[in-house]
Design brief:
Bound molecules: zinc ion
Structural class: alpha+beta
CATH topology: NE0471 N-terminal domain-like
Distance between the termini: 16 Å
Shape: globular
Number of domains: 1
Order of helices and strands: EEEHHEEEHH
Largest sheet: 3 strands, antiparallel
Radius of gyration: 14 Å
Number of helices: 4
Oligomer: single chain
């Protein structure tokens, strides 16, 4: 499964075309909130161990400034607050798809947003 085209479809939303012809739409907010980098994941899991308390959303946190394909297997996103360590493998990206089809399928399976 490979993304063949990535673009901003409208403000705040990314559209991804896949080689299996699936068309994904993913809001930038969802992308950022699911940032797979160690820093963001660490905040979620180890909030009280070492991460600074509740950071207010920085300006530009949900503004996408750049996207770059990394080694044909992932997408690296750069955000308006300077965060650029999130690398989204294709499977992760696809798992965040918010098209009606995927949302329905996830709702039906009861898995929700708890993705691997
Ligand atoms: Zn991150
Ligand atoms: Zn989908």
């Amino acid at each position: 499964m490979i993304a063949t085209q990535i673009r901003l479809s409208r403000p705040g939303e990314m559209a991804v075309s896949w080689d299996d012809r699936h068309q994904s739409v993913i809001s930038l907010r969802t992308l950022r909130d699911h940032c797979p980098c160690a820093g963001c994941q660490g905040e979620t899991v180890l909030l009280h161990s070492y991460a600074p308390v509740e950071q207010p959303a920085l300006p530009g946190k949900y503004d996408l400034k750049g996207a770059e394909v990394v080694g044909h297997y992932a997408l690296q996103l750069r955000w308006g607050d300077g965060h650029d360590t999130g690398i989204y493998p294709w499977e992760v990206l696809r798992g965040l798809c918010e098209c009606p089809e995927c949302l329905n399928r996830r709702a039906a399976s009861g898995i929700g947003r708890n993705l691997p």
